[in-house]
Amino acid sequence: MAQRKGCLIGCGIALVLGIGLLVALFFGAAKVLDIADKTLLDPKVYEAVKVGDPESEVRGKLPSGDTFVKDALKEGGPAEPAGSVCAWYLSAADGRTEDVLRLCFKDGKLAEKAQYRME
Questions:
Q1: DSSP 3-state of 80
Q2: 3-class SS string, 81-117
Q3: Is the pLDDT of residue 5 over 80?
Q4: Is 93 exposed, middle or buried (0-12, 13-18, 19+ CB in 10 A)?
Q5: For residue range 90-119, what is the model confidence (pLDDT) as tens digits?
Q6: Could you give the CA distance from residue 3 to residue 59 in angstroms, rounded to a whole number?
Q7: What single DSSP character describes residue 78?
Q8: Cβ-count burial of 13 within 10 angstroms (0-12 exposed, 13-18 middle, 19+ buried)?
């Protein structure tokens, strides 16, 4: 009887841990998809916007880019233009995500576009 009770307790603990792991995996996958949704930019959109375009028009075509990976994307890129505000994205081309697309805005317009490979 004691062995059976111990087995039930052990199985119960294993079941709770297994469910916890599945929940954690689900939320982790959801977070990864959320980050991808906010940081992946279609290269066609990048190519379509031109220096001098109004900032509001350009930003309307962009994902939010507001994730913790933004700081990592800044590394290895060219210096930001003085007085500008930049946004960094990963290229969504061909499933590759090592290409960074940077758009910098100044005085209400797109001031600079830069594309570089993440180190």
A1: coil
A2: CCCCEEEEEEECHHHCCCEEEEEEEECCEEEEEEEEE
A3: no
A4: middle
A5: 887 665 557 889 999 999 999 999 998 876
A6: 65
A7: P
A8: exposed
